[in-house]
Amino acid sequence: MKKLLLKLISVLSVPIILWYLYALNFTAYYMDDEYPHCMQQKDHVNNSSDYNDIIIIGDSATKADMLAYSVGDKSVYNISLSSATSVEAYISLRNYLENHGSPETVIAMFSVKSLTSNEWLRTRMLYFRYYSLSELSELYKKGRELKDPYWTADGIEGDMLRYYLRDPGLYLPAVRNSNFFGRYDANTRIYEQTAQDRGWLSFGTNENNYDEADIEKLEHFEVVPMQDYYIHKIIELCEEKDIDLIIEQIPIKESALEETDENVLDEFEGYFTELQNDYPDVTINPSPVFYSNVYFCDYAHLNPVGAEKFTAEIYDKYFPDDI
Question: Whole-structure pTM over 0.85, yes or no?
């Protein structure tokens, strides 16, 4: 009986071992197309490479809207992260500073959705295993302390473990869709292109998008506890490192202006005005920025023409002597 049991265990262990060898070491072969630019960003901030005068942090809208070309003699890198919030922006910036040194300026921008929601926590950040174990522990403890609805949600502990262990039930759909090795070439191209563009990423070239903007869906503008806490942490980190911090607003499509409750716009501006009052030495634009729909490729991201326009305006506004 004992021999039979040992034989059964050895037989069953083979596919488990093969799964983990594949799932942990061949992620570029089966993960979807958001994974490579997420990993390129993670690799860049966690490895010493180059020094940059200006660093851009934020979410996918920041990644799409801000090109990272040089401003005169000042070098620029966009370490914004798709599906991220100020939580990941803080972690990214902290890791960047440890490995690259302090830039002169950090430009931070966060979309309405990444301030008022964190629906991508499980499906993107945990799914991609973006956090180290120590970072995950840090965020979990802080989320519990702040009673953040996403970090205290039912089943979050189990999901953290399942994602970290690459539970086949969570990853086999992606493996099947990729035919095990089908996404490597495409993912490699995205990774290399993102690195070449210094972190900038286009979400498409469509124009005149009239999809509902995130701000239109809100009855109130209320920043999630974790996002609020880590915006303050970003400010304090920049103050500690003597870095000039600029907090700007991401463009919202013009058509959303008519469809958004006035109280939402007032609450939006009120949040950033209060932040400015708390930190008078930080440059903060509290007012929402609206752009013609012609410049949007989807509900939230500027197309390349819009990104060129917005980037030029930001650089001209804050670095006129360097252009």
Answer: yes
